[in-house]
Specification:
The structure is a single chain. With 280 residues, the chain is of the alpha+beta class. The protein folds into 2 domains: 2-94 and 128-170, Phosphorylase Kinase, domain 1, CATH 3.30.200; 175-276, Transferase(Phosphotransferase), domain 1. Helix content is 31%, strand content 21%. The chain is built from 6 helices and 14 strands. It has helices at residues 101-105, 113-121, 124-147, 185-204, 241-258, 265-276; strands spanning 2-3, 29-30, 37-38, 54-63, 67-75, 82-90, 155-159, 162-166, 169-170, 173-174, 207-208, 217-220, 223-226, 233-234. Strands 1, 2, 3, 4, 5, 6, 7 and 8 form an 8-stranded antiparallel sheet that branches. Helix 2 crosses helix 3 (124-147).
């Protein structure tokens, strides 16, 4: 995903141009909380669940081949209760690229053979099924990883092809991607240990990110946050699972080596394999 610097404006009322009787008094729309699938409990205090809350789209944070990420503000009118979230909106079957879907989807199953055939043949219905799987897979993954206390954004809700999640940033500024940072030697070592711990925990539960790189790792207050999880891989169930795991390990270890840290990509991958196979 392409990343654009994003600075949030100061809190201000955003008035809707919709003058219909059902329009909210402020913002673009009423809160989308009701009717959505919600993230795990206990929820962070900043999550606003009031049905009387309103929302406004503050602009695009990232654009990508599978989804765009917007910044969304939700607040309760006439109060100081406000939260900022990232709204990930998955493209429909006519506007997504599916060139890399097949490898990631191996090991996932749907109940109906008709749906499996449609996905395999890339029919219009099949593409919609795949898009739905991406959204549901990422939301489900974030929930499970959050419950394991892994460094991921909290998934607030999923409604069709839009997922709302924690906005990672400091004050009014989105956190930078790891690739654009220059940590000093001490911090670099600590960041690798954070990464190593997270990836070992993932491997212990049989998972790999599947597309991990410094472009989808954020650095927020000296803490790594791993993002973009729609392609999460079942290392054992997917025939290419260990290939994905090796690529994740090699990509990340190589970045840290280039920054001056003495990391052996092969040994790192070996530790992850040992953890992934320890259950068997």
């Amino acid at each position: 995903m392409a990343h654009m610097p994003f600075h949030l404006p100061e809190k201000q009322a955003v008035f809707s141009v919709d003058t219909s009787p059902d329009a909210p008094p402020e913002g673009d729309r009423w809160s989308s909380w009701d009717g959505a699938t919600h993230g795990p409990k206990p929820r962070p205090d900043w999550v606003i669940t009031d049905l009387g809350a309103v929302e406004a789209d503050l602009g695009v944070l990232k654009t990508g081949k599978e989804a765009d990420v917007h910044v969304l503000r939700r607040w309760v009118p006439d109060t100081d209760r406000v939260s900022t979230m990232a709204a990930k909106r998955y493209r429909n079957g006519d506007h997504r690229l599916f060139h890399r879907d097949a490898g990631y989807l191996e090991g996932r199953r749907v109940r109906k053979s008709r749906e499996m055939r449609a996905m395999a043949r890339r029919t219009d219905f099949g593409k919609q099924m795949i898009a739905g799987q991406w959204a549901a897979a990422e939301f489900d993954a974030l929930g499970r990883l959050w419950e394991l206390d892994l460094p991921v954004p909290y998934p607030v809700q999923l409604d069709e092809a839009e997922m709302l999640m924690e906005f990672v940033g400091h004050g009014a500024t989105a956190a930078p991607r790891l690739v654009s940072t220059r940590p000093d030697a001490d911090l670099l070592e600590d960041l690798f240990e954070q990464l190593r711990s997270a990836m070992l925990t993932l491997a212990q539960h049989g998972w790999a990110h599947g597309d991990l790189s410094p472009y989808n790792v954020l650095l927020h207050e000296e803490r790594l946050v791993l993002i973009d999880w729609p392609q999460i891989v079942d290392v054992i169930g997917n025939p290419q699972g260990f290939d994905f795991l090796e690529r994740d390990a090699t990509t990340m270890a190589t970045w840290f080596r280039r920054k001056g840290l003495d990391v052996d990509p092969g040994a790192f991958f070996g530790d992850l394999v040992a953890e992934a196979t320890s259950r068997f």
